[in-house]
Amino acid sequence: MKQLSGSIFILFAGYLGIVLASAESFDKQIKIFDNPELERLVLIGFEDSSINRFARATAIDPYRRRGEYKGSTWSKRVISQISQDYSLEMLSEWPMTEIGIHCVVFKIPASGSVEQVLNALHKDKRIRVAQKMHAFKVQASHYKDPYFSWQTNLRDMRIAEVHARTTGRNIFIALIDTGVDTAHPDLQGQVVSTENFAEAVSDSFSTDAHGTAVAGVISARPNNTGIVGIAPGARLVALKACWPVRVGEMEAVCNSFTLALAVNAAIRAKVDILNMSLTGPIDPILTMLLDKAAENGIIIIAADAGSNSDKISFPASLDSVIAVRNTDAKNAIQATRLRSIAAPGSDILTTLPHGKYDYVSGSSLAAAQVSGIVALMLQLDPEISKQNILANLQANPSLDLCKMLLCGKQTAIAETETLPL
Question: In degrees rounded to 5, what are phi and psi of residue 360?
Fold first, then answer.
């Protein structure tokens, strides 16, 4: 009996140690999302050959969840050495499997110079990439207009005629954004998988406004009492990398680390399209991941903030990305960049949490519409290239989809439905 009591004590002590370790880990995670801490956070990446031994997944099968990989013994040793060499506090780590890099978030102590530490890290031969933690913002604002059961942006595109030919069926779109209300009447069944990479600071998902609004524009279900999305046949992989500034509001922010985790997950899921309705400064690790996504044939759509400065228009500024800005169709030809696409982004009726609808504006909505249009194209021609997609969009600045997709042409797509608007 005494021996059993001793065993129970050991088990309890072990459990307490796990709880305390988890609490310490949670406290560290919080620092990644704390704005005052942001300026002293750095991301470093080093190559780890053991990363490639982990199984990959598809858009339909769930990918490996983040908590399962704890890093190789070798990577742990490198992290410890770097932490000691530069007096850094390690906050979080995770392998960016698709580019073979183990990524680590460190905090520079208040007594250290951020620029000096970064300069030293850049010269360290163990490290492939070192950068500041960047902040990103979503590109939409909420209008308190009354609800009306019509969508002028889709009417102008002649979407009902288009849907007789293509709905984006079997096209998978990764939505890197805030959470999505998957129980919304217009979104039920449209989201095939979800992941929250900002859970430490925002455990909400279904109550997040921005992601729900973007999701509705792309793939709201047809033939019900609500609205219809551009590509209702497409399916969404909802990856939460951004979190609301205030609960229930449209404004949201993200950072380099959460976005990198989400892009890496999207590549592993083998999606067809990657929608990023957000902007921020040029980011090296995200650039590597997005270039890898493009290399894998993923079509990347991003919101263009409408500025000629790449310092605030990333990732839309990348050559591998189709940039979309908000403009009226009549002004579409005046896109900020020659390769930018202009789409309606003002007063767009879409879905909001708790089964609601309202008008939302911003280049976030314009980008979402183009993601939906690309899904329509991909159903008709799964092999179409990003260059041809861009050329088709640029040749039709009014976004008359019937003109672009030849609505009158006979097709063998039997499962598409006519959608009365």
Answer: -135, 145
pTM, 2 dp: 0.83
Write down the domain spans for the chain.
32-133, 136-405
CA 154, 195, 325, 212: dihedral to nearest 10 degrees?
Answer: 40
Read off the pLDDT of residues 324-366 as tens digits, 9 standing for 90 and up.
988 753 344 444 445 678 888 888 899 999 999 988 989 999 9
Fold of 136-405: Rossmann fold (3.40.50)
Residue 143 token pair = 């209008």
**Residues linked to residue 360 through DSSP beta bridges, in sequence order:** 142, 348
Cα–Cα distances (Å) from 298 to 190, 235, 295, in that order, read 20, 15, 7
Q: Output the pLDDT for position 139.
A: 75
Output phi, psi for 23, to 5 deg. Answer: -65, -40
Q: How many C-beta neighbours within 10 Å does residue 116 have?
A: 11
CA torsion sign for 409, 415, 416, 419 is: positive
- Tokens representing 319? 């050559």
Using CA atoms, how far residue 128 sits from 82, 219, 270, in Å, is: 13, 39, 25
pLDDT tens figures, 255-267 = 999 999 999 999 9
Share of the chain above pLDDT 90, in %: 55
Residues annotated as catalytic (active site), given as ranges: 177, 210, 364
Measured distance CA(299)–CA(390) in Å, rounded: 10
The phi-psi region of residue 216 (left if phi > 0; otherwise alpha if psi is between -120 and 50; otherwise beta) is alpha
Write the burial class of residue 76 (CB in 10 Å: 0-12 exposed, 13-18 middle, 19+ buried): middle
Q: Which CATH superfamily is domain 32-133 in?
A: ACT domain (3.30.70.260)
